[in-house]
Design goal:
alpha/beta; 319 residues; binds ligand FO1
């Protein structure tokens, strides 16, 4: 499969733009490369939260209140597990459980996460390709004021409350990025790479930490465009702003552009951050200013169209 557009994303925030892209592109023209640094083994099951959030979102099955899991979920399994004194800090809904059980069975049978995802996602009604960033384990681990915490222990178990000192992406040095993504990035016909407004340090960095993927992104002929997850000095969702403060970074869209320096050709800034445009452009990327806050399907599609139009202008400028 040779997509025209490759989107890079994590879970909730990034999936919104991925959904917008999926509504304006024919399915064969879009592939979504998803963070697996959040993946972990829980209760003997292989859980891939970001792959699942993107899957459920594109299938229209996602739980919009929680931001993760399935809509109209029931929790009998968790209620019973709690009664039995089992581990109840991470919630697996009754219907969501089926995905983890089936994925785990097939992984144990020797199939790759990529192959399993390619088979299961159309069964749930997802048409574009969803590619896990790697079939090898990469695990995000945080050094915090409460010690070293695996990602889900930090994010869900401790609600992202501990102060983060540093972040490691264990296994990223040796993990082989998804070969389909490398092939897409090397294809001269690729028209755009979109870094969705996911948390740069928690959701996008695990992808960039794989040397071969970073090199392929740096070398692709397609314009690479990042959409800022920071608007008016605040994160749209999740602990991005808190984390940036802890890492000693000013909580601005400019800090995110700096994080992507050298990799991106274009940066999409919200209208609220217009005053940062010149400073960011001075660091290298072309800047586009559009409304980036996605409140409904229409705004997801509008942002997707704006990003692809920006990519078109960048392609024409270098042609
Ligand atoms: N997030 C929570 O805040 N609490 C949960 O209990 C939880 C369970 C869960 C189960 C399956 C799944 O696919 C995702 C789940 N998430 C939960 C979301 C997830 O852990 C994080 O949002 C992502 O890893 C960050 O992108």
């Amino acid at each position: 499969m040779k997509p025209r557009v490759l989107a890079l994303c994590g879970g909730i925030g990034g999936a919104k733009l991925a959904l917008g892209l999926s509504h304006i592109l024919p399915p064969s023209e879009l592939a979504i490369l998803v963070n697996t640094g959040d993946d972990f083994e829980h209760l003997g099951l292989s859980v891939s939260p970001d792959v699942d959030t993107v899957t459920y979102t594109l299938a229209g099955l996602n739980n919009t209140e929680l931001g993760w899991g399935l809509a109209s979920e029931t929790w009998a399994f968790m209620d019973q597990l709690k009664k039995l004194g089992g581990e109840d800090w991470f919630n697996l809904g009754d219907r969501d459980l089926a995905l983890h059980v089936e994925r785990t069975r097939r992984l144990h049978a020797g199939e790759s996460l990529t192959a399993i995802t390619a088979d299961l996602t159309p069964r749930l009604g997802v048409a574009p390709a969803i590619w896990p960033m790697s079939d090898d384990p990469v695990r995000t681990v945080l050094e915090t004021d409460e010690g070293i915490l695996a990602f889900q222990r930090y994010f869900v178990g401790r609600r992202a409350e501990p102060a983060v000192q540093s972040i490691a992406y264990e296994g990223s040095d040796t993990a082989q990025p998804n070969p389909l993504a490398l092939e897409a990035l090397n294809d001269p016909a690729l028209e755009a790479v979109v870094i969705c407004p996911s948390n740069p340090w928690l959701s996008v960095a695990p992808l960039l930490a794989m040397p071969a993927l970073r090199a392929a992104l740096a070398g692709t002929s397609a314009p690479v465009i990042a959409v800022s997850p920071i608007v008016g000095g605040r994160a749209i969702k999740g602990p991005t702003a808190k984390l940036m403060g802890e890492l000693g970074l000013p909580v601005t869209a400019a800090s995110v552009a700096q994080f992507y320096a050298g990799l991106i050709d274009g940066y999409v800034l919200d209208e609220a951050d217009r005053d940062l445009a010149d400073a960011i452009a001075g660091q290298g990327p072309a800047v586009d200013i559009v409304p980036t806050v996605m409140t409904d399907l229409a705004s997801r599609q509008t942002l997707a169209r704006d990003v692809l139009a920006f990519a078109g202008r960048l392609r024409n400028a270098t042609a």
